[in-house]
Write a structure and sequence with these properties.
The protein is of the alpha+beta class. It has 3 helices and 7 strands. The protein folds into 2 domains: 34 residues; 102 residues, OB fold (Dihydrolipoamide Acetyltransferase, E2P), CATH 2.40.50.140.
Amino acid sequence: MYGRKVKLRFLFIILILTSLILTVFLVLKSLEENVVYFQSPTEIKELSEIGSQKIRVGGMVKKNSISITAEELKFTISDFKNEIIVTYSGAVPNLFEEEKGVVAEGYLKDKNLFLATKILAKHDENYMPPEVKEALEEK
């Protein structure tokens, strides 16, 4: 019916398409595992269940909420609707202070306590994450 050349071209095209689909699938799968989602304290309060995946919580550091001991740093992140307490052990960025924007990466203990593994503040003192800015503008 079809010649040998046509069959080889068809097989080659099928092989290329299969390889392309597999490559795209593997890239998307690996990216999915490394994605860390940003959430505000209000979004955390609305969660139906607490997962064990790493997340980022962002908002403003509440005034007079920073408590420093030898072992840990505790502070409260607020989006002016809800608040969440964050505990962290380690060095904090120089720009970390009260009434400034902050993003903490880590795990939820419960809906009121967040165990941070990283404090992100690679910005100037006027920067606010876009999600936090939108949440504040909605208020």
